[in-house]
Amino acid sequence: MSFAAKPEEPWAPLHRVLAEKAWDDCCPFWDEDGQGYLIGTHFADGYKIHLFKMTADGKSLIKDSEVIYQSHGSEAHKLYKINAIIIIFLVRCVTTRVLMMASAKKIWGLQPHGSGTSSPKKINGLYLIHSFRSVRRQPIG
Protein backbone atom coordinates (compact mmCIF):
# COMPACT_ATOMS: atom_id res chain seq x y z
CA MET A 1 0.00 0.00 0.00
CA SER A 2 0.97 3.61 -0.37
CA PHE A 3 -0.63 6.90 0.55
CA ALA A 4 -0.45 10.64 -0.07
CA ALA A 5 -2.16 13.64 1.48
CA LYS A 6 -3.44 14.57 -2.01
CA PRO A 7 -3.29 12.47 -5.20
CA GLU A 8 -1.11 15.02 -6.96
CA GLU A 9 1.46 15.12 -4.11
CA PRO A 10 4.34 12.63 -3.67
CA TRP A 11 3.31 9.17 -2.48
CA ALA A 12 4.88 7.31 0.43
CA PRO A 13 7.12 4.32 -0.41
CA LEU A 14 5.26 1.03 -0.89
CA HIS A 15 4.44 -0.87 2.30
CA ARG A 16 3.71 -4.62 2.26
CA VAL A 17 0.41 -5.42 4.01
CA LEU A 18 0.42 -9.20 3.47
CA ALA A 19 3.90 -10.73 3.43
CA GLU A 20 2.87 -14.37 2.90
CA LYS A 21 3.24 -16.02 -0.51
CA ALA A 22 0.51 -17.44 -2.77
CA TRP A 23 -2.11 -14.68 -2.44
CA ASP A 24 -3.86 -13.24 -5.47
CA ASP A 25 -6.24 -10.44 -6.43
CA CYS A 26 -6.12 -8.66 -3.07
CA CYS A 27 -8.49 -5.70 -2.96
CA PRO A 28 -9.08 -3.15 -0.17
CA PHE A 29 -12.48 -1.77 0.88
CA TRP A 30 -13.28 1.04 3.34
CA ASP A 31 -16.69 1.35 4.94
CA GLU A 32 -18.30 4.72 5.75
CA ASP A 33 -17.02 4.49 9.32
CA GLY A 34 -13.43 4.41 8.03
CA GLN A 35 -12.88 0.72 8.82
CA GLY A 36 -10.73 -0.94 6.17
CA TYR A 37 -10.99 -4.53 4.96
CA LEU A 38 -8.92 -6.61 2.56
CA ILE A 39 -10.26 -9.45 0.46
CA GLY A 40 -7.84 -11.89 -1.19
CA THR A 41 -7.53 -15.43 -2.55
CA HIS A 42 -5.05 -17.82 -0.95
CA PHE A 43 -4.58 -19.98 -4.03
CA ALA A 44 -2.00 -22.26 -2.38
CA ASP A 45 -4.70 -23.28 0.12
CA GLY A 46 -7.46 -24.38 -2.25
CA TYR A 47 -8.39 -20.94 -3.57
CA LYS A 48 -10.00 -19.85 -0.31
CA ILE A 49 -11.18 -16.26 -0.42
CA HIS A 50 -10.42 -14.54 2.90
CA LEU A 51 -11.83 -11.33 4.31
CA PHE A 52 -9.51 -9.48 6.72
CA LYS A 53 -10.16 -6.47 8.90
CA MET A 54 -7.38 -3.86 8.61
CA THR A 55 -5.78 -1.74 11.31
CA ALA A 56 -6.84 1.92 11.49
CA ASP A 57 -3.82 3.11 9.48
CA GLY A 58 -4.43 0.51 6.74
CA LYS A 59 -0.85 -0.77 7.00
CA SER A 60 -1.56 -4.11 8.70
CA LEU A 61 -4.14 -6.86 8.75
CA ILE A 62 -5.86 -8.20 11.82
CA LYS A 63 -5.00 -11.84 11.19
CA ASP A 64 -8.38 -13.24 12.26
CA SER A 65 -9.85 -13.71 8.80
CA GLU A 66 -13.08 -15.23 7.58
CA VAL A 67 -13.16 -17.62 4.63
CA ILE A 68 -16.12 -16.29 2.68
CA TYR A 69 -15.91 -18.50 -0.41
CA GLN A 70 -13.87 -21.31 -1.96
CA SER A 71 -13.81 -22.46 -5.55
CA HIS A 72 -10.88 -23.69 -7.64
CA GLY A 73 -9.57 -20.81 -9.73
CA SER A 74 -11.75 -18.17 -8.09
CA GLU A 75 -10.45 -14.70 -8.82
CA ALA A 76 -11.14 -11.03 -9.50
CA HIS A 77 -13.09 -10.41 -6.29
CA LYS A 78 -14.11 -6.91 -5.29
CA LEU A 79 -16.21 -5.48 -2.45
CA TYR A 80 -18.75 -2.70 -2.96
CA LYS A 81 -21.39 -1.01 -0.84
CA ILE A 82 -24.51 0.13 -2.66
CA ASN A 83 -27.58 1.45 -0.83
CA ALA A 84 -26.32 0.09 2.52
CA ILE A 85 -25.80 -3.41 1.08
CA ILE A 86 -22.32 -5.01 0.98
CA ILE A 87 -21.71 -6.78 -2.34
CA ILE A 88 -18.90 -9.16 -3.26
CA PHE A 89 -18.14 -9.70 -6.93
CA LEU A 90 -16.01 -12.63 -8.04
CA VAL A 91 -15.34 -15.02 -10.87
CA ARG A 92 -15.45 -18.71 -10.02
CA CYS A 93 -14.04 -21.40 -12.28
CA VAL A 94 -15.51 -24.87 -11.89
CA THR A 95 -16.25 -26.19 -15.38
CA THR A 96 -16.74 -22.73 -16.86
CA ARG A 97 -16.07 -19.17 -15.75
CA VAL A 98 -19.03 -17.78 -13.80
CA LEU A 99 -19.46 -14.21 -12.61
CA MET A 100 -21.00 -14.21 -9.16
CA MET A 101 -22.26 -11.54 -6.81
CA ALA A 102 -23.36 -12.09 -3.23
CA SER A 103 -24.76 -9.50 -0.88
CA ALA A 104 -25.46 -9.02 2.79
CA LYS A 105 -26.53 -6.20 5.07
CA LYS A 106 -23.34 -6.53 7.14
CA ILE A 107 -19.83 -7.29 5.88
CA TRP A 108 -19.54 -10.35 8.14
CA GLY A 109 -22.87 -11.57 6.72
CA LEU A 110 -20.91 -12.90 3.74
CA GLN A 111 -20.51 -16.31 5.38
CA PRO A 112 -18.82 -19.51 4.17
CA HIS A 113 -21.12 -21.59 2.03
CA GLY A 114 -19.42 -24.64 0.60
CA SER A 115 -16.81 -25.56 -1.94
CA GLY A 116 -18.30 -23.78 -4.92
CA THR A 117 -18.77 -27.00 -6.85
CA SER A 118 -22.54 -26.63 -6.90
CA SER A 119 -24.86 -23.66 -7.01
CA PRO A 120 -24.41 -21.37 -4.01
CA LYS A 121 -27.12 -21.35 -1.37
CA LYS A 122 -28.83 -18.22 -0.11
CA ILE A 123 -27.11 -17.42 3.19
CA ASN A 124 -27.70 -13.83 4.17
CA GLY A 125 -29.14 -11.88 1.29
CA LEU A 126 -29.24 -11.84 -2.47
CA TYR A 127 -27.16 -13.98 -4.81
CA LEU A 128 -26.94 -13.04 -8.44
CA ILE A 129 -25.20 -15.56 -10.68
CA HIS A 130 -24.35 -14.67 -14.25
CA SER A 131 -22.87 -17.47 -16.31
CA PHE A 132 -22.66 -15.36 -19.49
CA ARG A 133 -26.09 -16.69 -20.50
CA SER A 134 -28.54 -16.27 -17.63
CA VAL A 135 -29.20 -14.23 -14.51
CA ARG A 136 -31.08 -15.33 -11.39
CA ARG A 137 -32.17 -12.91 -8.71
CA GLN A 138 -33.59 -13.38 -5.24
CA PRO A 139 -34.94 -10.46 -3.20
CA ILE A 140 -33.19 -9.50 0.02
CA GLY A 141 -35.07 -10.31 3.20
Automatic annotation (TrEMBL):
Top-level lineage group: Bacteria
InterPro entries xref list: Glyco_hydro_beta-prop_sf
SUPFAM superfamilies listed in its UniProt record: Arabinanase/levansucrase/invertase (SSF75005)
Official protein name in the record: Uncharacterized protein
Native species: Pedobacter terrae
Lineage of source species: Bacteria, Pseudomonadati, Bacteroidota, Sphingobacteriia, Sphingobacteriales
